[in-house]
Amino acid sequence: MKKLLLCLGLCLSVTTFAQKKEWLDPELNAINRAPARADYFAYPSREMAEQGVREESSNFLSLNGMWKFNWVKDQTERPVNFYRLDFEDQYWVDFPVPGIWEMNGYGDPLYRNSGYAWSNQFTPDPPKIETVNNHVGSYRKTVEIPASWKGQQVFLHVGSATSNLYVWVNGKFVGYSEDSKLAAEFDITGYVRPGKNLIAMQVYRWCDGSYLEDQDFWRLSGIARGAWLYARNPLHLKDIFITPDLDEAYRDGSLNVVAQVSRNSGTVELELKDKAGNIVEKTSVKPDGKGIVRTEMAVKNPAKWSAEEPNLYTLLLTLKNNAGKVLEVVPQRVGFRKIELKKELGQVWVNGQPVLFKGADRHELDPLTGYQVSRERMIEDIRVMKENNLNAVRTCHYPDDPEWYNLCDEYGLYVVCEANIESHGMGYGERTLAKEPAYAKAHLERNQRMVETFKNHPSIIFWSLGNEAGDGPNFVACYDWIKQRDGSRPVQYEQAGRRAHTDIVCPMYADLNWMENFAKSGDSRPLIQCEYAHAMGNSLGGFKEYWDLIRKYPNLQGGFIWDFVDQGLRKYTADGAMIYAYGGDYNRYDASDKNFNCNGLISPDRVPNPHMYEVRKMYQSIWTTPAALRKGIVNVYNENFFTDLSDYYLEWQLLQNGEPVRQGVVMDLQIAPQQTQPVVLGYKETDLPAEGEILLNVTYRLKQARQLLPAGYAVAEEQLEITPYPLFQVELAETGQKASLYEDLVHAVVSAGEVQVTFGKWSGWIEGISLNGYEMIEYGYALRPNFWRAPTDNDFGANLHRRFVDWKNPGLKLKSFEAEEQGNRVQVVTTYELPRLAAVLTMTYLIGGNGEIRISEQLAVDKEKKDMPHLFRFGMQLVMPGRFDRIDYYGRGPVENYDDRNESQRLGRYRQLVKDQYYPYIRPQESGTKSDIRWWKLTDIDGRGLAIRSDVPFSASALNYLPEDLDDGWDKDQRHSGELKPRGLTTLSFDLKQMGLGCINSWGAWPLQPYLLPYQDYTFQVVITPIRKY
């Protein structure tokens, strides 16, 4: 009877244990969770291991697919007995695993940058979490355990559950886990039986661990990665740690292998195979008294692993019992590479070279499925990175799906693997959880589990302790543990600054002055910014200057752009328009940081944003400089560290005034890494045109497919000037034709042949330009000076839309209007006062007998005034009917570009449509500008329209929107480019100069000084010519 009561008591405790408060205890982060181990799958045979598809293995059972599901808004409403075998779930819905609740209609997506998801509900007070709005999802699924699994150990694997995970099997409590971005595994051998088994899980939206998961991303809930069961022999490999190394000459390699067998028995055979399947080295080792297997495998001159050449080998570990029977086979891909900190140089080396890290930060996010990211999407992301010359990625701010690291191993990316720790909302001072003893264990466990899980991946070159979580003893302990456990990799932490517990100085958003001061400081560590060049909206101006500096100083070794992909979620408006949703788009109650999660180099659907082209250019690894351009000789520098240029060919093209006139190919480029050689292109000086602007375009293409890129793909480009642009003279030519002036009380009308120009005397503006009666200015609009642009996200962040607001509607007061005939020409001069800006604007128009209009726009300011606002632009704008929908120009293109972001866009002649000019950034803003323009034409389908030239290269744009369509005004609204409706008109803007875009950050930094328009005098001269094709 006592035994019966004891048994009942134990059963009761095991089934009700999960009703306790572990979800509020920061020192209890797991119950019965299996120890973290290297991510691998053990196959029952060599054949299956060599095939490497776990889904087809006899000891694997997928749990992905539909589960019975229940969702409640408040934690107190959750079902408490749902795990019982007799619980009726027929009225529950079917719900996918993996699957995110909010992306499937349960709860709303919520976005915060810093500050907790619940900050509108209750004040953060760790580990306090309220039950209200703490959504709970409960899952049930019946699975069939194969009879062949009898006598095996059975494990449950759940790849990612946010924010925590409870597990029951057949009505009994199994365990509990926190840390939403690492897999939780449970040994359920004692809970399952052959045949049908009930697995039940419960996930909370928030728990005490959520205080460490305050990352700058969508706050979503559910099971984001796959779930499965797998079976193993009781005698099995519990863990494997493979450490590659190279000798001092970086020639010969070794693999240090340490494996843990579940008990002291059997034999482990190790076989190393190269890419072709040849056996390179093999050995056999018995475990010691503690079940440990240790061996080192020496390999003569192995193919090395790097992001440039990701050579992989396969290590097969076969465990046999004492009778020689194969129990399991584990394949592990390994790469021979060596990472070193060279303190005397302040550098980090990979395989003996101070590589440059051309990186970006990547959140795991899909616009349709949220945290659930498919393998196909991962490959797409890597392809886009390769297309744009990225060689490094930081997993911000948590460990990614294990498949991501497999793909980075395979295709070649340097990875910074970051622990799932960010407590930004607690600040960096005394309240930081980095100093909180109750959270010390959680800090350490999250770092330990990350390292143990991913330690065998050659792509991982640095460990990162976390992100924006303050600093204190909890991080020092993490650093010390990792350095003891894995001495082969550096460890970094941004908040450590320049203290001892970071091997890499990895600040965020350090400007150029800070970087240069560091480069000269003598610090023994390299500077690699973990976040820089904030790519929010229309951004990345001044990116070239970062890389000019990085390439100047050896201890500046690159950085990671924030960030890779806009985190917009696909959503549809009531009228069916597709938008990318951001914070605040789902309800009015939740805390929100609006579109601050849309800082990507690419759109949510992986289309490159215009600024990605600048990254592609500045990250390229083949550079061309003049040697003897007129003789057809250039210098080619191979910036790669491990690969020569034999896999590439060079295309060249000569342009005269933007049009190709001669081209050729150089197929043989035998240029070693880090070397420069002259290359003879094949043209002679006598082949050069005698007049006009002569440019040389050089493009480097792949001879054959490589790392997801097709043969012929262009990996690098350059444009060099041979003969400079002969500046256009704005003086009107004397044609012998006469322009005449007619005036009444309201208008001044100038007639010049087929052209008629109409001025409004009350405004002083040109209100009409017609060609044989064909009007080119939309009725109700005029040609006006323009000093404003629709603010970009960076403009908003620096509050420039308020600082500069006087230039938006500057209160122009017409002081004089003078019109007179001057020989065969007519001159009109208008003068305006700008009282708020202490300035005078003079517009001088000279209309020639052939209808050409020369305009001189002159701004004179009061130089005694201090602290006057800068300008967004200095130029002119007019609105034309929508039928003027074609652009033909000679300038930089084809993608939009600005004075501080145009290195990637080559000079040439481009023909485009107005409807394609606006790029749909997540939120409406300035877009579509082209810079360094020599001439610009805007015409209708018949070639009728306006041509514009200036005595200096200028910028211009043509959009189907008015400026106010793209301008939020004083504050940002919940607006989206997908909601914009093109107007039946064309807004033409042309400027002497437009302020740069900037990218140092999006919360206060201005563009660099050379790209500003300070309060000063300006003069802009253009000639506008009404044109027609015939």
Please provide a written account of the structure.
It catalyses: Hydrolysis of terminal non-reducing beta-D-galactose residues in beta-D-galactosides. This protein is mainly beta. It has five domains: 22-232, Jelly Rolls, CATH 2.60.120.260; 237-334, Immunoglobulins (Immunoglobulin-like, Sandwich); 353-616, TIM Barrel (Alpha-Beta Barrel); 620-723, Sandwich (Immunoglobulin-like); 740-1027, Beta-galactosidase, Chain A, domain 5 (Distorted Sandwich). The chain contains eleven helices and 58 strands. Strands 47, 48, 49, 50, 51, 52, 53, 54, 55, 56, 57 and 58 form a twelve-stranded antiparallel β-sheet that branches. A seven-stranded antiparallel β-sheet has the order 1-11-10-13-7-3-4. The chain has a seven-stranded parallel β-sheet with strand order 30-29-28-27-26-32-31. Helix 3 packs parallel to helix 4 and helix 5 runs parallel beside helix 6 (473-485). The termini are far apart. Mean pLDDT is 96; it is low at 1-18.
Task: Describe the structure in brief.
The chain has 1030 residues and is mainly beta. The strands form 13 sheets. Strands 47, 48, 49, 50, 51, 52, 53, 54, 55, 56, 57 and 58 form a twelve-stranded antiparallel β-sheet that branches. Strands 1-11-10-13-7-3-4 form a seven-stranded antiparallel β-sheet.
